Description:
Bound molecules: zinc ion
Mean pLDDT: 89
Number of strands: 22
Amino acid sequence: MSALADRLAPWRFVAAYLRTRWLARRLRTRDDVMAWQSGRLASWQRRVLARVPFYRERAKGPFESLPVTDKAMVMADFAAFNGAGVSAAAGWTAFTGSGRVGRYIVGASTGTSGNRGLFVISEAERWEWLGVIVAKTLGRLARARVALILPLNTRLYEAAGRSGLIALRFFDLNRGLADIAGEVAAFGPDTVIAPPRVLRYLVEAGVAIRPRRVFSGAEVLDPLDREVIETGFGVTVREIYMATEGLLGVACARGTLHLCEDVVKFEFEPVADSDLVVPIITDFTRSTQAMARYRMNDLLRLAASPCACGSPLRAVAAIEGRRDDAMTLCGPGGEVVVTPDVLRNAVVDADRRIDDFRLVQTGPKQIELTLRDALPEEAAAAAAAALARLFARLGVTAELRLSRVSGFTVSARKLRRVERRVQG
Ligand SMILES: [Zn+2]
């Protein structure tokens, strides 16, 4: 990358946009998708992977021989996984300062301290990401005012963007929702991309916006929130599956979440005792930091059949939470892992009036259920009984404590209704 390439980087937006639109027409069958991926992967392995220290030798072998990686592995030797020579130390310094190392942009994932992941991308990659997301959300190019309300954790997107028909503005969630809400209303977006808790906040706080397109991203979209948001805005919420690791899925007009297999290759690892899978991703559009066979922390339920919209991109029935929020409890034959979706359904299905809750494992046997003060006693008792029945059925020992709060605060932190806070 040269300074000239940086100056030309905005053209990557246009190129990525046009490519994504072209692929949406050209890729018609699963075979088309596989052929496109294998062609791109082969050249990516040669051009990009071979220049990244960790892969210098490994990139020569077949794709299947590459090791599966994860956040811990990448963070243990950050410099080995990017071709820009950025070390973790330099990355963290830049993250708290200018947000840049040389020409590269550095950011970090939200997460508990000690569990945050760094990422490094180029100016061109940042525009590439935007081009793909605009193509997949807006479709045909038309006049649009897009508000992206996200925990940015990078200075990457501070500036407002405007290219012809599209006005794009980023609102950094780390500044606090109350601060942002007025600015969002003043901007008057017709398209809003935000985490579901933020969309719900905008509805419940009565922020004066009338978006025609609403996208939920950056965390799990619970049907509880979907209902409030759709009723409030009067439009269907479309889900975007995004992570620090990139843009991974976007829902089609029918509301089905399709994986972005035109930019990322997905493999799936089954989760024991459940019908969920953990995705292992290879992002063959990135060139600075190598993301090859990288195991995500998400639990997906794949759709049993293709979507009626006709897209050959794999459909996902639901993102069910994070792998490390699955609770580990003691059963007669040893550890039993209970995934967040099972726990969530037990609580929510217990009584129709439960429209929010938190369920946290705080110790090997300790589980805390928090509900709103306003919820009637019998609904709370029904939730506790449903969990007790679930634990009995699984044969696990758990001590459930029930507490009440006047309301759940909406913070910059990622919302996890089901959470595991014990180590080991
Ligand atoms: Zn579809």
